[in-house]
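Troubleshooting entry. The earlier prediction with magnesium ion gave an output that would not parse, so I re-checked the input for stray whitespace and re-submitted. Clean input:
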Amino acid sequence: MKEELMMSVSGVRGIVGKSLTPSLLIRLAQAFGTLVGPGTVVVGRDTRLSGEMVKHAVFSGLISSGCEVIDIEICPTPTIQLMAKELKAKGGLAITASHNPIEWNALKFISSTGMFLNEKQAKKLFKIFNENSFRQVSWDGLKVGMTYPLAVRAHLKKIMDFLDVEKIRKKSFKVVVDCCNGAGSVISPALLRELGCFVVEVNTNTDGFFPRPPEPIPQNLGVLCSVVKATGSDIGFAHDSDADRLSIVSEKGIAVGEEMTLELAADYVLSKKKGIVVTNLSTSMAIDDIVKRHSGRLIRTKVGEINVTTQAKKYKAVIAGEGNGGVINPRIHYGRDGIATLGLILEYMASENKSISQLISRIPVYHIEKKKIQVARENIAPTIENIKNEYKDKKIDCTDGIKILMDHAWIHFRASGTEPVIRVIAEAKTKSQAEKLCNDGMKLVKKISQ
Ligand code: MG
């Protein structure tokens, strides 16, 4: 991976000590403090070793621009989002590079609504940053901040109020949870205990190091699968480093893939309340079938949490989310929340009195292949434009990159907002069809981008 700085609506990501330096972080925080104006800003971080350095640089920038920092320390991104809203702050900063490897870190910018900045707000932020037009207060305008240790408790309470806790407690589920030593470690095992589960913890030390790659995709969950099987547990859950995502391992010890989380959540929520579901363009077709089955309506958006949450709020969706395991429960807040989703899945099992495998068997089967290819930043946009020409006789959706729609299959090419890559995602009825489609797409990108 190149040592590049990624600046997009999803935040600013870089490699610590290379593209992500203290001076850059101070300027970014100054820009954010200037954007949101004087007032409180909630700051939390994931467990990465670099988190302390990033945090102190960010504090310096925020305080210098007249903001009062509320430090909620190690917390999942959804907790930070929720607290920005609940504490009526002017905004929030999540210090996490989410699924990126440990050498990366990042800032995700949160507005007073608890949602991420939208494209317009992000543009304004980067303009302030690029022009160095920071508000700078004098010594007597500096505000003393505070540490707020009750954030996790507040988030837990919000989730418990949303769930049918008694129903779940009655089942005394045996659950394995793998937090990748990330921020989920401070909350998910606690939630499971509150829900009356017998909890087996895997990778819940917040020591600053990740024992596996943080993305909760099947190839990274070997240990979790074996622990679920060895302990005879009912289910296994895995988070990424900031716990906005969740993926599931069945009682048979099978990692069922991160797409399944939203599918199960939507199947359950729609069975209780008909309504609108919002997801992004790269999420499995299974969701179309599920929504149809419950006579609901599906709205697809550009990839990226803020695009999904904006539409979810606008259309008052009953559930929303992305195929990467990020599920949004609008009754709690408009943000991907892997912790709340874990509770929702247990409630589904308890209400239906079924094993997770039985619930999974209700989900239509498709195969999705996700690949990525590194392309020089300046070639990314022209490459995507040229791909369009290659498929000009096909049905195309240009909402976000290029998505080519076929009968019971599709392929989607888009520039990543978090890495200098083009993502190629294909889905079809069979694994071999999906693989062929994805591999052909990768070859095409290679050919065009060189
Ligand atoms: Mg994440």
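This one parsed fine. The domain at 154-360 is CATH 3.40.120.10 (Alpha-D-Glucose-1,6-Bisphosphate; Chain A, domain 3).
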